[in-house]
Amino acid sequence: MRRFMFIVIALLFVAVSFSQQFSQPIGVEKARLAVDLLLKGNYDEVVAMFGEEMKAGLTADKLASGLRPALLQVGAVRNRLDPRAQAAGDSLVVTLPVEFANATMNFVVSFDKDGKINGLWMRPAAPPAAAPSADPAVAKANRAIDLVLQEKYADVIAMFSPQIITVLSEEKLRSGLQPILRGSGAVRKRLEPKIQASGGQSVVILPIQFEHATWDFIVTVNSTGDLGGLLARPGIDASVPWAAPAYSKPELFRTEEVTIGKGDWQLPGTLALPTGKARVAALVLVHGSGPNDRDESIGPQKTFRDLAEGLASRGIAVLRYEKRTRYAAAKLGSIKNFTVQDETVDDALAAVEFLRGRPELDPARVFVLGHSLGGYLIPRIGQRDPKLAGLISLAGAARPLEDIIVEQYLYLASLQGNPPEAQEPINKIKADAQRVKALKADTKLAPGDLLFQCPPSYWLDLQGYDPAMQARTLKQPMLILQGERDYQATMTDFARWQAALKDRPNVRFRSFPALNHLFQAGEGKSAPGEYMAKPGHVVPEVIDEIATWIGKIAA
After folding, report:
1. 3-class secondary-structure state, position 117
2. DSSP letter string over 218-285?
């Protein structure tokens, strides 16, 4: 749950007469000099280039306080693109696009007739427009996402149906989408849209490749042409090839495409089966929060594929599958009171039953591994199926989810130096967390009102749920693993698991000092950018820990 505070600098503009004495080539060179000085932090020298009226309205300190936080967030300069210059009334306006690590920004510098700066902006470069579509629903969805990419949230809100507008504010939409846009970098490519019918509505899926991630924007268009829903889920970026880790030994296992579940909730998956072995132990992988694919892809990282191939190479069958909130998102509206049972637990148990029916596998040696939200829900899964051979929690929270969400936002703000502009969204997050805690069965909320993108039924179901304390009531062996650099589920959670289960001899705990939430190694404070950087892998020590533990339990 990433949140980046960002500033678009719109500085004082004063129109004065412009003459041909100050030529475009000279203006371009002066604009380049001004931007170079800004990027170096030489704000006094930039102010010296201002006209008198501009100097009166904008000091070097004001310029620095406005620009410095934005430059910290967009990252290092990657490339400078060709400038554009044009006359605008009596001024010369020069636009200099700059590619940063996390975004492409336009520096716009305006000059008066004497070559003095009378206007200065830094704003996101316009994203590429979508290809025209003859399908009205696709055209409407494209228009909505065009506005999202330009961060014109009020205009997007105006496209929703009257019923949705009553419960979806501009701030709610911004808080859900802005962290995605700010953390993914510049738009690289808009891929072919997909459309499907659902209960008289059209569900349009618009995949977009950004610099650091691929996202699917899912837009629901109703029969009157209004928007009925808009969400984003991690997409699959085929442009970033996944390279198998060294511990993956393809000669030791084979994979098979399978389907788990029944009726509307049939989900495709991949089963990795050790070759040359019969009646082997098997493991189900249960996703974290959000609409995950079977590999639990986050940017170029594929945590579940690492686990599946690494453990299959060690003689353990592994099943991973598409999460319901990704594969069957268009059907979720049919669930009246949506809870974690619908999101996660029911499908995990369906996967277990599938494995028990496979002749190659030992039905008495089926294990479940949950990561993140899946780890948090491991005790519920174990309670529902006492016959499970063992339970594994990777980075499982042990505190109320609303508290975890607040903690994550505070942590991310601290990475930015706690800028003043972060306080308002943090206050909103804290207020929503209190609303979650205050929910009661008879609480009346407007139809469609969501708390942290989930309906009240979701939070009511979790009230009073204490994963670690519920785990004390279980008899199955458990393995609790934690990365010490993880900021999403922290060592505070790990300590709660330890305190609750310390008296159970069949529970093993292990933490890894260098690992983050994806069980990849790093240094210093963990940050969201780690997930979007170059492809990495679950470290071999985690694969070995799990394989060894299952081997001992299943022996």
Report:
1. strand
2. EEEE-TTS-EEEEEEEE---TTS-----TT--GGGEEEEEEEES-GGG-EEEEEEEETT--SEEEEEE
d(CA 137, CA 219): 9
Least confident window among 3-12, 85-94, 194-203, 512-521: 3-12
Per DSSP, the three-state class of 512 is strand
Q: Which helix (H) or strand (E) holds 304?
A: helix 303-312
E strand or H helix at 543: helix 540-554
Mean pLDDT of the chain: 87
The token pair that represents 257 in the structure block: 């495409």
* Structural domains of the chain in order of their starting residue, each with its CATH number: 9-124 (3.10.450.590), 136-234 (3.10.450.590), 250-398+466-554 (3.40.50.1820), 401-463 (no CATH)
Instruction: Output the CA–CA distances (angstroms, integers) from residue 252 to 263, 272, 446, 543, in the order listed.
Output: 34, 10, 55, 15
Is the C-alpha dihedral spanning 546, 549, 553, 555 positive or negative?
positive
> 10 Å Cβ neighbour count for 166?
13
pLDDT at residue 11, rounded to an integer:
35
- Which residues have a catalytic role annotated? 372, 486, 517
**pLDDT band per the 50, 70, 90 thresholds, residue 13:** very low
- What stretches of 12-152 show up as alpha helix (H) in DSSP? 24-40, 43-47, 52-57, 60-74, 136-149
How far apart CA 284 and CA 265 sit, in angstroms, is 17
- Rounded CA separation 379/294 (Å): 22
Q: How far apart are CA 141 and CA 397, in angstroms?
A: 36
| Cα 528 from Cα 415, distance rounded (Å) | 10
Cβ neighbour number for residue 337 with a 10 Å cutoff: 12
Write the CB contacts of 396 (distance below 8 Å, at least 6 apart in sequence): 370, 371, 372, 374, 375, 376, 378, 467, 480, 489, 493, 497
For residue 387, pLDDT over 90 is answered with: yes
The CA distance from 522 to 483, in Å, is 10
- SS3 annotation, 366-425: EEEEEECHHHHCHHHHHHHCCCCCEEEEECCCCCCHHHHHHHHHHHHHHHCCCCHHHHHH
- Give the integer Cα–Cα distance in Å for 213 and 206: 14
The answer to whether 9 and 67 have CB atoms below 8 angstroms apart is yes
The answer for residues whose C-beta is within 8 angstroms of residue 407's C-beta and 6 or more apart is 490
Indicate if the pLDDT at residue 4 is higher than 50. Answer: no
- β-strands 201-210, 194-198 pairing: antiparallel
